[in-house]
Every structure is written in structure tokens, then in C-alpha cells.
């Protein structure tokens, strides 16, 4: 068995001493996890190392740490994969997650940041009345829609590396906003508008995300929090026309109109339009504030006054027609690859060479005799025919073939006159999604037996 | 090598020196650029935020226009275009029915996107198509002793699977590799893979400029002479907004920021003026001696 050296960041705030790095070498199998190696060190060398862990199977979300600079679960990261991230032969660094205070060594204060922000978004269902006497049935399409955000195990990896939070600790952040979408997207919830209004009016809300994609890469479960934030913006801005404190929706609208008009961006118009137009009182202070910048740009020859005033580029008629046609559709269409999967996933070509985690071999669970229960995606739901592949966040191997029915609803709102034909034949495998644990009822989604395309909360 | 070339919006807007320097550098690398001048903005994630199908359709149109040219592949010079286009392409390539649906919107114009376009940022093209050996052989003015901090930003490295960053294609090391191939010294600093803050500059200026200011300050602390960026939007926040960022982080900055084609052009022997370096807000005087066109530190 190869040797692995762990370089663990040690820190005990009460000691009054500065944090320091400590090396420990252990002999482990290459497919052992970083957590196993830490526990080995704890057992054999130094029992005082602080780490939080429980299930060791990427379900409980306790062991979030940074491994060679990247956030993730220690139980879900192979030693070989962790070592491959660094220089050859270099130690594997293990340090606590970022953006949260350290309690001791690898343990961070999740209450102070993560849970506080989760509580901030009212993370429970506010039932629409009247509540049915029996099961409160959710249409399958809506259930599928929130499945991705329900996959969150609250490990805090996304919070750790959120770059907006790094400069603005008030930002509600990726985990909590993904959680917010779980209820915004649930048709049983009575307060979609109020939730979105609240998250838009908070200046540290949905428009404070800087699109850095760190949370998407950090998440061990494929939740893609940033994508959920964009969906919150889409519903808040486009559907509810909520004007936010950060000017986010106005900016989005100005940007879209700018491209519709010009084909390519005319920056000189974008700034004033984002504040409501050149003559709007709101625009004046912003424009005055940006005058030195604009003057500099002109002085340096980046811009000429003529170019500022007369944008030479105009959108081709075909582009204008695309805007008109798509904006005129009765329902917005959205393809979520987490749900629909990829055709020919193995030959995705230049776009992707690796699954979401860099683990080459199965880790969790090692060899399940039975695949865990899966979220059933009913076969009867209309939608384009797509083969199913495991969601990108799942590092577990595909379970043995089984005759689960085909799945699909990649379109957020399928057009009423969906032309799709019969569903595909059964796929080879189902994703090994853990059961969502976060619904008010304990979160069990049972397979729809009725064949009516609906999942049921029990 | 013939290339379908998408310059993006900002390179033809507030950073004209990027478009200009690419045009100067291309012939030196035997690239024949076929500019996609009828194509529309990639949407920069903002159009997708508004309506995903709209962004996918506009980019499918760009891809279809690229496929109509004689270009071997499509190239962009903007990370944000790369990221936004890769996201749309991922959806279009993943699902035939969806792709056909999008193509039906393009049909009126006689356009059609066929799955599997190769779309590479200039950085990827430099390493994967031209090759570092060829690049090295073309260097006329080695950037000896020039201390360059790579600034990747977000859209060109994340999410890693979508952007094809893996052991075989260490695209998150390409700027490092190019700087070294040009004879420069790579400076690692805290901001190498962080966000410049541009996407929220109109929404939370304080947070946005704090990001820019911190990264610039970290680069100064690491004693970099300049930064190099593969994205004009990063350039806007790091260079055009640098005086404002300076105020936000209450620290004198003055860090020159070069576009990737400018850094390459400088090493290939082009004059700083030709590369539009005079158009920067922070003049790259630390990089180049304007009177002699000698790269700073050379021969030192």
C-alpha cells in the first residue's frame, strides 16, 4: 500500500497560538478516503485532531473540509484523487472550510454562518389552503424541478468557497438560496411571490451572486446552487416583475433589450439603462460617479464620443426575429441536464472529459448489494425522449441494471401542445440520488403507482 | 490554420485594444481569422438568466454561422463568451430533441447547428492547437524576468467538467504554461482563480470593487509586474475600474493588466503601441520601456 502524507491545519482558538500545519504519513490504499486517512492518524498518532464526521458515505454532510485547496467531503474524496490535485509527491493539505469561523482544527462553526443563512430563507413549506385531507399531491413535473435543490446535504462546501460571501459576509449565499428555490419551485407553497420579493429586496439576496461557479464545482451532490439562484432571478424578474434593491432585474432587462436592438452589446447605453434610462433620477448619481471612468476611457482612446453616441452595430433582422419568437412563447422552456441527463454521455467530446468529482473509482458506497432507493421519475410524463445518466454530482457507481421506467422531464414547463411521442425504452440505470431529507414530512417521495405521472408526499 | 473567429462584444467596445492586438498576433501564429460579424452576443449569462432558450438559440445561431465557414474550429477571445457558450452548447449537444427544437427557430434564416462544434478560447488554442513548442520558437523578445501574475477569472475554468479541465487538459494551468513559454516568470498569488467582480459591478459596486482591489493588492504583495487576463470583462474591472477599486480598498494599486494577445504579441516582437497598450488606464510602464520597447527587467 502506498504512503500518503497529510498536511493538516491545526488550530485551537482558546490556546492563543497561531494556526500551524502538521504532517502525518499513513499507509493506505489509494482508493481509501481522505477521511479514513485522517481517522487512521487520529487512532494511531494523535487523537487530538478535531474533525466532524458521521456516516462516512456522503450522506450526512458532516465532514466538509478543503482538500488541496478544494472544498468537499473528506469521506467522498479518494486519496489518489486528492494527491493528483497537488504536485507529485507533495503532501495532501487538509484544512477547514472557508467563510466560517474555525472552532478547532478542521471543525468550523456551521451555526454562525451556514445554518443562520438557511434559517434566513424560511426553509419550510407554507401550505396553500385548503390543505387536502390526505396526501398533498405535487405534479410530477414540479417535483422533478425541485429535485436538484433537494439533493443538498447541508455540508457547507459551497458556502466555504463562495467568492461573493468572501467580500460580503452578509450575502445569503449559495446553500441557503438553493434551499429557497426548493420552496419557490414547490407549487404547494403559498408564498412564492413573498419569498422572491424578500430575497430580491435584501441587498445581500439573489442579485449579490457574482456568477463565479465555485459553488457548482464545490458541491458533492450536483446541486449547482448558482443555477438555482439564476432560476430564482428568472422567476422573480421575468414572471413577477419584482424590482430589487440592487438593480439586478433592471440590469437584466436593459441587457436583453440592448442585445435585441444592437445584436452585440452597446456598453455606453447599458449603464444608464440599467438605472432606468439616461434621464431617470436614479441614473444621475451613478452616471456622475462613473464620469471619471468614462472620461479616462475616452482620453485613452478606448472609446470615441461618436462611438458612444452612435453605436455602429445593429442587430440583424434574424436576431430580432429570434427575440420576438421566443419571448412570445406562452411558456418559457428550460432544459435541466441534472434531470434529463446527457445522450451519449461517454462521448461528450471537448466539453467534458470527467465526471463532476475527480474520483476514478467508486467510493460511496463501496459495493452496495442493493442500490439505495431512488427518486422515481414517472414514465408517463410527456417530454422529449432522453436517455438517463447519473447526475453529475454523484460519484457513486451506476447501480446494477434494473428495469426502472424511463424518466423525463427536461423542460421546465412543457408546452401545452407537446409533440413528443412515447417515452424511451427503459434506461440502463438509475441515478443513485440519495433520498431528499429536507421536506417537512421527512421527504420521502414514493414511486407513483397510479401511472398518472404524479409523485406523492407521504 | 483557418478559424471561425468570434471576438465578442467588449473587444469591439470598451477594450478595442484586445480585438486589435488579436488581429496583429494572428498572422504571426499562422492563424487566418474568419470573423463572425453577423453573430450576436453570447448573453454573458444574463440572457440565460432571463430566458434560457433565448440564450441557447442565439448561441446555436453563432455556432451554425461558424460551421458555415471554412474554419477548422471556432475561437473566442473572451472567457465569458467561452463559459456562456459552453453552457449553451452543453445543453444543445446533450439532447437531440431540444437541439432540433432550437434549430427549428433558426431554420428561417437557413441556419442549422450540428452537434459537436469545437469552440476554444485563444488560450486553449495556443496550447492545444498551436502548441507551446511552436509558440516558444516564435518568441523574438523573451519576457525575461518579467513577473506575470495569471488571472484566470471564472468562466474559463469553472465548472471544471463543462470546460473540460482534467489531467489530460490542465486548462487551469495554461496561463502559467504560456507565460513560461514566452520566457516570463509566473507569480502565484491569492487571486489567480478568483472572480474579478465585474458581473455585480452595477448591483453591488462595493463588493465588486473589493474583489478587484484585493486581487490587485495580492498581486502587488507577490511582487508581480503585471497581470494577464483571458477575458475583457476582467480587464474592465481590473484596469478601467482600478482607480475606483483603489478607493474602495484604500490602497494605492497601479498594477498593469494585459490581455493575453498583448502578452503574446509583446514576446513575438510587436511594438507596444501596435498592441494598443496606450489604451490602458494603468499604463504598463512597469512592463515595457516606452522609449526603447524593451521589456522591463530584460537583461537585468
Explain the overall architecture:
- The complex is a heterodimer of chains A (458) and B (300).
- The longest helix of chain A is centred in the middle third of the chain and has 17 residues, at 283-299.
- Chain A is built from 16 helices and ten strands.
- Among the domains of chain A are: 3-108, Beta-grasp domain (Ubiquitin-like (UB roll)), CATH 3.10.20; 114-239, Fumarate Reductase Iron-sulfur Protein, Chain B, domain 2 (Orthogonal Bundle); 248-328, no CATH class.
- In chain A, the strands form three sheets. Chain A has a five-stranded mixed beta sheet with strand order 2-1-5-3-4. In chain A, strands 8-10-9 form a three-stranded antiparallel beta sheet.
- In chain A, helix 12 (267-274) packs antiparallel against helix 13.
- Chain A is an alpha+beta fold.
- Chain B is an alpha/beta fold.
- Chain B has a four-stranded parallel beta sheet with strand order 2-1-3-4, sandwiched between helices. Chain B has a four-stranded parallel beta sheet with strand order 6-5-7-8, sandwiched between helices.
- The longest helix of chain B is centred in the first third of the chain and has 17 residues, at 52-68.
- Chain B starts with a strand and ends in a 5-residue tail after the last strand.
- The model of chain B has no long low-confidence stretch (mean pLDDT 95).
- At the A-B interface, helix 6, helix 9, helix 10, helix 11 and helix 12 of A face helix 2, helix 3, helix 4, helix 5 and helix 9 of B.
Amino acid at each position: 500500500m502506498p504512503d500518503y502524507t497529510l498536511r493538516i491545519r491545526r488550530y485551537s482558538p482558546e490556546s492563543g497560538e497561531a494556526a500551524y500545519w502538521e504532517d502525518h504519513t499513513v499507509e493506505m490504499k489509494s482508493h481509501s478516503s481522505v477521511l479514513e486517512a485522517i481517522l487512521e492518524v487520529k487512532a494511531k498518532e494523535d487523537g487530538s485532531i478535531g474533525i466532524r464526521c458521521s456516516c462516512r458515505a456522503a450522506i450526512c454532510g458532516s465532514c466538509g473540509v478543503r482538500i488541496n485547496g478544494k472544498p468537499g467531503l473528506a469521506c467522498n474524496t479518494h486519496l489518489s484523487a486528492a494527491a493528483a490535485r497537488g504536485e507529485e509527491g507533495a503532501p495532501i493539505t487538509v484544512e477547514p472550510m472557508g467563510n466560517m469561523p474555525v472552532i478547532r482544527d478542521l471543525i468550523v462553526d456551521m451555526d454562525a454562518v451556514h445554518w443562520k443563512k438557511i434559517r434566513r430563507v424560511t426553509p419550510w413549506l407554507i401550505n396553500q389552503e385548503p390543505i387536502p385531507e390526505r396526501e398533498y399531491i405535487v405534479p410530477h413535473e414540479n417535483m422533478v424541478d425541485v429535485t436538484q435543490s433537494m439533493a443538498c446535504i447541508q455540508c457547507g462546501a459551497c458556502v466555504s468557497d463562495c467568492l461573493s460571501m468572501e467580500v460580503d459576509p452578509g450575502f445569503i449565499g449559495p446553500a441557503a438560496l438553493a434551499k429557497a428555490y426548493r420552496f419557490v419551485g414547490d407549487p404547494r407553497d403559498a408564498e412564492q411571490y413573498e419569498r422572491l420579493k424578500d430575497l430580491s429586496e435584501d441587498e445581500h439576496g439573489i442579485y449579490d451572486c457574482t456568477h463565479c461557479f465555485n459553488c457548482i464545482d464545490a458541491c458533492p451532490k450536483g446541486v449547482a446552487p448558482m443555477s438555482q439562484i439564476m432560476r430564482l432571478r428568472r422567476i422573480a424578474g421575468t414572471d413577477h416583475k419584482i424590482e430589487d434593491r440592487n438593480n439586478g432585474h433592471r440590469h437584466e432587462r436593459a441587457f436583453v433589450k440592448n442585445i435585441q436592438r444592437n445584436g452585440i452589446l452597446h456598453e455606453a447605453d447599458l449603464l444608464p439603462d440599467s438605472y432606468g434610462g439616461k434621464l431617470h433620477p436614479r441614473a444621475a448619481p451613478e452616471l456622475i460617479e462613473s464620469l471619471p471612468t468614462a472620461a479616462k476611457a475616452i482620453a485613452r482612446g478606448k472609446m470615441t464620443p461618436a462611438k458612444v453616441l452612435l453605436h455602429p452595430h445593429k442587430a440583424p433582422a434574424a436576431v430580432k426575429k429570434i427575440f420576438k419568437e421566443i419571448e412570445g412563447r406562452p411558456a418559457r422552456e428550460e432544459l435541466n441536464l441534472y434531470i434529463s441527463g446527457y445522450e451519449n454521455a461517454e462521448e461528450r467530446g471537448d466539453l467534458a472529459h470527467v465526471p463532476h468529482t475527480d474520483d476514478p473509482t467508486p467510493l460511496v458506497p463501496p459495493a452496495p448489494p442493493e442500490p439505495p432507493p431512488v427518486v422515481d421519475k414517472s414514465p408517463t410524463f410527456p417530454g422529449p425522449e432522453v436517455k438517463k445518466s447519473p447526475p453529475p454530482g454523484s460519484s457513486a457507481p451506476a447501480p446494477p441494471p434494473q428495469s426502472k421506467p424511463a424518466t423525463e422531464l427536461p423542460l421546465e414547463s412543457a408546452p401545452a401542445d407537446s409533440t413528443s411521442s412515447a417515452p424511451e425504452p427503459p434506461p440502463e440505470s438509475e441515478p443513485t440520488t440519495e433520498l431528499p431529507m429536507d421536506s417537512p414530512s421527512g421527504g420521502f417521495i414514493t414511486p407513483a403507482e397510479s401511472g398518472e405521472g404524479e409523485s406523492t408526499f407521504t | 490554420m483557418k478559424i471561425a473567429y468570434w471576438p465578442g462584444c467588449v473587444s469591439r467596445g470598451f477594450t478595442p485594444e484586445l480585438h486589435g492586438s488579436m488581429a496583429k498576433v494572428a498572422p504571426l501564429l499562422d492563424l487566418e481569422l474568419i470573423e463572425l460579424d453577423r453573430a450576436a452576443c453570447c448573453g454573458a449569462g444574463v440572457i440565460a438568466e432571463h430566458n434560457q432558450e433565448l440564450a441557447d438559440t442565439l448561441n446555436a445561431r453563432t455556432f451554425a454561422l461558424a460551421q458555415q465557414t471554412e474554419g477548422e474550429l471556432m475561437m473566442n477571445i473572451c472567457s465569458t463568451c467561452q463559459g456562456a457558450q459552453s453552457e449553451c452548447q452543453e445543453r444543445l449537444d446533450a439532447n437531440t430533441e431540444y437541439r432540433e427544437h432550437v434549430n427549428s427557430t433558426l431554420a428561417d434564416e437557413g441556419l442549422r447547428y450540428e452537434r459537436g462544434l469545437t469552440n476554444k478560447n485563444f488560450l486553449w488554442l495556443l496550447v492545444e492547437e498551436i502548441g507551446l513548442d511552436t509558440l516558444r520558437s516564435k518568441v523574438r523578445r523573451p519576457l525575461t524576468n518579467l513577473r506575470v501574475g495569471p488571472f484566470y477569472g471564472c468562466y474559463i475554468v469553472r465548472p471544471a467538467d463543462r470546460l473540460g479541465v482534467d489531467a489530460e487538459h490542465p486548462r487551469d494551468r495554461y496561463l502559467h504554461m504560456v507565460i513560461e513559454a514566452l520566457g516570463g516568470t509566473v507569480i502565484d498569488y491569492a487571486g489567480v482563480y478568483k472572480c474579478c467582480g465585474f458581473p455585480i459591478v452595477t448591483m453591488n459596486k462595493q463588493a465588486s470593487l473589493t474583489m478587484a482591489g484585493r486581487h490587485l493588492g495580492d498581486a502587488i504583495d507577490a511582487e508581480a509586474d503585471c497581470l494577464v487576463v483571458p477575458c475583457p470583462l476582467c480587464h474592465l474591472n481590473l484596469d478601467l475600474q482600478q482607480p475606483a477599486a483603489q478607493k474602495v480598498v484604500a490602497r494605492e494599486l497601479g498594477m498593469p493588466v494585459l490581455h493575453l494577445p498583448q502578452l503574446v504579441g509583446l514576446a513575438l516582437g510587436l511594438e507596444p503601441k501596435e498592441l494598443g497598450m496606450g489604451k490602458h488606464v494603468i499604463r504598463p510602464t512597469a512592463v515595457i520601456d516606452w522609449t526603447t520597447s524593451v521589456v522591463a527587467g530584460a537583461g537585468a
